[in-house]
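Backbone shape codes:
***
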Amino acid sequence: MKKQWAAFTGAFALAASMAVQAQDGENLLRQIGRAITNGPQASAQASKSPYRDPAGTYWDQDEDTLAGAQHVRAGLASTGSGGARTCDAQLIAMTRSAYRLSRSEREQCLYAEWLIDTKQHGPNGITPPQTEAIERMYGAAFDARAERFRNTHRFFVRPNIDPHPTYDRARGTLDVYVPIPWINGFQVSGVTGEGFVPSSAKSQRTVWTPKNAGRYHLPIRMSESEANNLIHQGRDANDDLIVFSVKRVWLDQAGPKAEVKVERVQVGYRNELIGVDLTKNKGGES
């Protein structure tokens, strides 16, 4: 059984507490465990799926809510394989700003819903060129999801934590850089907030994009031996998770942008699950 430990920290504090159960950890890990194992539902899907890849490869098996947060369908599937791009970020933007989808953009969004459905459950008699049939099949549910997002403040996503966390010997921290998917994928200018690496930096002579720009930086205090143990184990992306709240959305020439507040980050390794609760402010390094 995988060992769980959690670190409680504020936005700028360095996490240190080992072998501590997060407040919502039991329920959260129980649900994650179902997602990782995929359970009977995944077995049933595998038996009828026309695709050779394992069940869940094309979409994750997470419940629509987890740890009191709404699932944003982007990032990694529960098998650790790539998911499919959806318009969940667009729905967040539409319910918090004047951003609206064009007709062609809506068709692309509903095509994604068709793709997810058929990848999970097999052909349903509708083909991609049949845009009106796709609208009839998925349009109402798409609009209902937007309305649900309108009254939702906390979201979670399975992020693509790449590159893997690295250890900084000088500071004694395992540095994790977590992206949050946005309108155009993992663009560096889509999401910002406290703790995120700025999308640009400048000096008197030049302007440049910093490494890991646009990602949430989580430094976790630990010894070098502890970090080496994690690195030796290897990563398990099934457990990766980020929970965040949306503070505001605004529009500029490049499209909608979002300011978010990160509440929780989980980083999975083969034998350990690290959970960091950013709402537990220790008032400094711990």
Summary: The longest strand covers residues 255-268. The helical segments are 25-37, 39-48, 88-94, 103-121, 131-150, 224-233.
